[in-house]
């Protein structure tokens, strides 16, 4: 039985008529950059997340970069973040000339350990950038309290967490601003790259929008350097068609995760994802941990089942940092314990119980061997 890690083809088939219609509408109108589809998407995302503003942009990496740039973060500043995330999180910090400062993670959730946060704050710290990894929110209330006491900005990296909640509030509405990615594999994905910023800060939204358009609000007149980071109308139309289905899809992901939790409970040497009681995750990925990761993944691949490491190496161990003059890698034992040991099992909308049972069977057999 072939089971992909994510089945985007099945998602397309289920929405084919609707997606083909909106695609044709945009193509026949020949309005490809900006326009009513992008504006409608921004309004829809702001409404969904519960924020005053949303600013569409080229991708999730740009969303992070634009937020930090709009906050004035740059050379000499420090931004505290997690070592257990996709490289784009620190890339956005580094491209502004700022320095990422890593704080270790919690076992089980793999989110930034808020209890270890305050000791990392220095006089150069300007912001905290928590990542809602794999679709579960960081414990934000104590994080925000620490940030407030030190006068720091907070930016959510919610690229994997659209639809996740924290104490009844949506990811993307919990801090000064948030970044989302609409990469095709995300819970809400387009047919290419796409991203969005959410915030209640009008000034920040205006600055980010200006920076995303070459640093201008009036064509051919520029008072700052910006970037070219626009979400095109085709992608906006696709996302508008998919957004009404997001909650249902996230519910299907949670249901699949619950079956995995049941079938894999008690398997010796296998750690399952932990869910904190303060919120509802959306399982962008269902990630397990084992010292036998390599063998289990090989067994899954041999059975035609999709899997992938998340992540093979923590960020503070990456060569790009170790090459920096004077760099001293921090000791982050929880993050380091995940190197090449945390991997994803198929957990996508529409996955059947039969498919989950097949995956779980292969995992159990490989763990027992």
Shape: globular
CATH first level of the largest domain: which class?
A: Alpha Beta
Quickly count the helices. 13
What's the domain count? Answer: 2
Largest sheet entry: 7 strands, mixed
- Across the major sheet, the strand order is 1-9-8-5-4-2-3
Alpha carbon gyration radius: 21 Å
Offer a few descriptive terms.
Aspartate Aminotransferase, domain 2, Aspartate Aminotransferase, domain 1, about 15% strand, alpha/beta, about 40% helix, about 375 residues, seven-stranded mixed sheet, 13 helices, 2 domains, globular
Short description:
The chain is an alpha/beta fold. The protein is 38% helix and 13% strand. The radius of gyration is 21 Å and the shape is globular.
Q: Could you explain the architecture of this structure?
A:
This protein has 369 residues and is of the alpha/beta class. It has two domains: 8-244, Aspartate Aminotransferase, domain 2 (3-Layer(aba) Sandwich), CATH 3.40.640; 246-368, Aspartate Aminotransferase, domain 1 (Alpha-Beta Complex). Helix content is 38%, strand content 13%. It has a seven-stranded mixed beta sheet, sandwiched between helices. Strands 7-6-10 form a three-stranded antiparallel beta sheet, with no helix packed on it. The protein has a three-stranded antiparallel beta sheet with strand order 11-13-12, with no helix packed on it. A hairpin with a 2-residue loop joins strand 6 (165-166) and strand 7 (169-170). Helix 3 runs parallel beside helix 8 (233-242). The longest helix has 19 residues, at 246-264. It is globular, with a radius of gyration of 21 Å. 48% of the residues are buried. The model has no long low-confidence stretch (mean pLDDT 96).
């Amino acid at each position: 039985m072939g089971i992909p890690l994510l089945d985007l083809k099945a998602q397309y088939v289920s929405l084919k008529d609707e997606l083909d219609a909106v695609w044709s509408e945009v193509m026949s109108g020949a309005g490809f950059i900006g326009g009513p589809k992008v504006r409608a998407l921004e309004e829809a995302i702001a409404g969904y997340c519960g924020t005053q503003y949303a600013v569409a942009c080229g991708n999730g990496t740009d969303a992070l970069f634009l937020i930090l740039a709009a906050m004035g973060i740059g050379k000499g500043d420090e931004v505290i973040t997690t070592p257990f995330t996709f490289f784009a999180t620190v890339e956005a910090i580094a491209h502004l000339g700022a320095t990422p400062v890593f704080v270790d993670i919690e076992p089980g959730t793999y989110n930034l350990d808020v209890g270890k946060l305050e000791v990392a704050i220095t006089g150069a710290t300007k912001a905290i950038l928590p990542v809602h990894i794999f679709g579960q929110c960081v414990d934000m209330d104590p994080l925000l309290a620490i940030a407030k006491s030190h006068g720091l900005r907070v930016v959510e990296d919610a690229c994997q967490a659209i639809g996740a909640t924290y104490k009844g509030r949506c990811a993307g509405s919990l801090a000064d601003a948030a970044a989302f990615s609409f990469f095709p594999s995300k819970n809400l994905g387009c047919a290419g790259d796409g991203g969005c910023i959410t915030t209640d800060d009008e000034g920040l939204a205006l600055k980010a929008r200006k920076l995303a358009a070459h640093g201008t609000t009036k064509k051919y007149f520029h008072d700052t350097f910006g970037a070219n980071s626009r979400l095109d109308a085709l992608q906006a139309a696709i996302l508008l068609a998919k957004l009404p289905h997001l909650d249902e899809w996230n519910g299907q992901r949670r249901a699949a995760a619950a079956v995995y939790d049941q079938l894999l409970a008690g398997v010796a040497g296998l750690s399952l994802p932990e869910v904190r009681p303060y919120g509802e995750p959306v399982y962008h990925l269902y990630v397990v941990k084992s010292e036998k990761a390599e063998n289990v993944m090989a067994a899954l691949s041999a059975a035609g089942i999709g899997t992938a490491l998340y992540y093979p190496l923590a960020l503070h161990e990456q060569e790009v940092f170790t090459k920096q003059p004077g760099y001293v890698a921090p000791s982050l034992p929880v993050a380091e314990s995940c190197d090449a040991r945390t991997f994803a099992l198929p957990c996508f909308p529409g996955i059947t119980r039969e498919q989950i049972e097949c995956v779980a069977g292969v995992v159990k057999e490989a763990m027992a061997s």
